[in-house]
TrEMBL record:
Record-annotated membrane-spanning stretches: none
Compartments (UniProt record): Mitochondrion outer membrane
One CC-aspect GO term: mitochondrial outer membrane
Swiss-Prot/TrEMBL GO biological process terms: mitochondrial respiratory chain complex assembly; protein insertion into mitochondrial outer membrane
Record membrane topology: Multi-pass membrane protein
Organismal lineage: Eukaryota, Metazoa, Ecdysozoa, Arthropoda, Hexapoda
Protein name: Sorting and assembly machinery component 50
Bacterial surface antigen (D15) domain segment(s): 134-455
Keywords per UniProt: Membrane, Mitochondrion, Mitochondrion outer membrane, Transmembrane, Transmembrane beta strand
Length: 456
C-alpha cells in the first residue's frame, strides 16, 4: 500500500459499517496494539527501528492509533534508511479490540548520487553529491558534496554521520571542508580549509542544540585592484579554533509562512583554543507570529549580535569574522551588506548590530488561488530598522554602547509579494522606501528582489 494509508479487514466489534448509515466516532473505538511488524528490512538492524515505534503501544482509541501510526511513519522516513514507508493497520484475531500495525519499507540503495540546486543568501547553487546511506545498519552515512554558486562561491564537503538515537534524538558528525567565499560587498575572498565536529541533540520538544568545534586555516585575499587598503591590510593567513553552541527553539506552525508560534535562536562562539584568532561572539534572533482575523498574520522579529576581541590587538580577528547588515534579507531598501562604516566602495562591517522587522502578511487579494497555488504566495507590508557599528557592550560602557546603537539607525518600509519555494526557501519581490539613512548608505529605492532561506 502507499505511504500514509490505513487498511482494516473487518470492523471492530460493536461498530456498524458505514453502509448502514451510522456514523462512527473513532475516538470511542477502543484499541490495544498487540503487534508491530516492519517488513522489508535487510541491512537495517531491528533494534535501530524498534525505538521509533514504541509509542504505538500507548494508543487507546482508533483515532489515536491512526495519528500515532502517521507520526511513526515520519520518524521512520527521517532515519534516512528507507526510500518508501507504507502503513497497514489490521485487526488482530486474538482479541476483539486488538490491532497490529504493519510497515512495509523499501531500503535505500547502498550508493545514492545526484545533482540538485540550493538557494543561499540571494544566490543559487548547483550541488553535485553522492552518499552512502545506512552503512552499518543503524543510520550511519557518509556524504560527499561539491557546490558551485552563482556568485563564484565554491565548497567541498566530506561528512560522516552517526545517529545516537534515544530520547534526546542525538547524533554526532564530523566534516572535512574547503570553502571559497567571495565577499563582493567588501572586495575580498576568503578560502577556508578545516574540520568541524558537531554533537546535536534535543533537550525538550522542539528545542535543538548543536555543540560544535571548528578548526579552520583561512586565507583572505583582495579580490580586485580596487580593493581598499582597509581591507587589503587584513589579507593573509590565520588559523581559527573555536567552540560554538547553537540553540534553536522553534514552535512555529510553518517554517516559511508561519501563522502562529515563536522562534528563538541563540549562537555563542568562543575562538581562541589555539591559533591566532581570539574573540567571543554572540548572535540571537527572536520571531513571534500572531494570527489575526481574515487570515492576516502580524509578525515581529528582532536580531542582535556582538563580537568582543579577547585581545586589544586587531590581528586577533579579521573582516570575515565581523557582522554585516543590509539587503533584502535583513534591512530592506539598502544594498546587500552595505550598511555601516566604509572605505571607498568597500563595506567594513561591524562588531555589533541590531535589526528589527514588523510584517503584516496577507493571502493574495480576493481569495485568488486559495486552496491551490495561492498557498505559495503571501502579500505583505513591512517596516525594517537596524544599525551596525563597533560598539563593545562591555559592562562599564553598556549604556553608552546602547545609545550609540540607537543613534543614526537606518529604517525603511514597503510592500511586496513573497513566494514559497518548497519548505525551506522563498523569493521576495518588494517595493521599498528607505526613509532613515546616513550619508554614504547605498539605497535601493523601488523594486528589490530577495532570494534565500533566512529572512528577517
Amino acid at each position: 500500500m502507499g505511504a500514509g494509508q490505513a487498511k482494516t479487514r473487518k470492523q471492530p466489534q460493536g461498530v456498524a459499517k458505514p453502509s448502514d448509515g451510522v456514523s462512527i466516532d473513532l475516538d470511542t473505538v477502543p484499541v490495544r496494539v498487540e503487534n508491530v511488524k516492519i517488513n522489508g528490512l535487510s541491512r537495517t538492524k531491528d533494534d535501530y527501528v524498534s525505538q521509533s515505534v514504541q509509542e504505538l503501544f500507548k494508543a487507546t482509541t482508533f483515532n489515536e492509533l491512526v495519528f500515532k501510526a502517521s507520526v511513526v511513519q515520519g520518524k521512520l522516513e527521517k532515519l534516512g534508511c528507507f526510500r518508501d514507508v507504507g502503513i497497514i493497520i489490521d485487526v488482530s484475531d486474538s482479541s476483539p479490540d486488538g490491532y497490529e500495525v504493519i510497515y512495509n519499507v523499501r531500503e535505500s540503495g547502498r550508493f545514492v548520487g545526484g545533482i540538485n540546486t540550493m538557494i543561499g543568501a540571494n544566490e543559487g547553487s548547483l550541488v553535485l553529491g553522492c552518499r552512502l546511506p545506512n552503512i552499518l545498519g543503524r543510520g550511519e552515512r557518509i556524504n560527499l558534496e561539491h557546490t558551485i554558486g552563482s556568485d563564484s562561491n565554491k565548497s567541498s564537503l566530506l561528512t560522516a554521520v552517526k545517529p545516537l538515537g534515544g530520547s534526546w534524538n542525538a547524533d554526532i558528525s564530523g566534516t572535512l571542508f574547503h570553502h571559497k567565499n567571495p565577499a563582493y560587498w567588501s572586495s575580498y575572498t576568503v578560502f577556508s580549509t578545516g574540520a568541524l565536529l558537531d554533537f546535536a541533540f534535543e533537550s525538550a520538544q522542539k528545542v535543538r542544540h548543536n555543540m560544535q568545534w571548528e578548526g579552520a586555516w583561512r586565507q583572505l585575499e583582495a579580490s580586485s585592484r580596487q580593493t581598499s587598503f582597509a581591507v587589503r591590510e587584513q589579507s593573509g593567513h590565520s588559523f581559527k579554533s573555536s567552540l560554538r553552541h547553537i540553540m534553536t527553539v522553534d514552535h512555529r506552525d510553518h517554517p516559511i509562512f508561519p501563522s502562529s508560534g515563536v522562534l528563538l535562536k541563540l549562537v555563542q562562539e568562543y575562538a581562541g583554543l589555539g591559533g591566532d584568532v581570539a574573540f567571543v561572539k554572540h548572535d540571537s534572533e527572536l520571531q513571534a507570529n500572531i494570527p489575526l482575523p481574515h487570515n492576516l498574520v502580524l509578525q515581529g522579529a528582532l536580531r542582535f549580535g556582538v563580537l568582543r576581541p579577547l585581545d586589544a590587538r586587531d590581528s586577533t580577528h579579521n573582516i570575515s569574522d565581523l557582522f554585516f547588515l543590509g539587503g533584502p534579507q535583513t534591512v530592506r531598501g539598502f544594498e546587500m551588506r552595505s550598511l555601516g562604516a566604509r572605505s571607498g566602495s568597500d563595506a567594513l562591517g561591524g562588531k555589533a548590530y541590531w535589526a528589527s522587522a514588523v510584517h503584516l502578511y496577507m493571502p493574495l487579494p480576493f481569495g485568488f488561488g486559495r486552496g491551490s497555488f495561492g498557498e505559495y504566495f503571501r502579500t505583505h507590508a513591512f517596516v525594517n530598522a537596524g544599525n551596525i557599528n563597533d560598539s563593545s557592550f562591555n559592562t562599564e560602557d553598556f549604556a553608552q554602547s546602547f545609545q550609540t546603537m540607537m543613534k543614526d539607525f537606518r529604517a525603511s518600509y514597503g510592500i511586496g509579494v513573497a513566494i514559497r519555494l518548497g519548505q525551506l526557501a522563498r523569493i521576495e519581490i518588494n517595493y521599498c522606501w528607505p526613509y532613515r539613512f546616513s550619508k554614504g548608505d547605498r539605497l535601493v529605492r523601488g523594486v528589490q528582489l530577495g532570494l534565500g532561506i533566512d529572512f528577517l
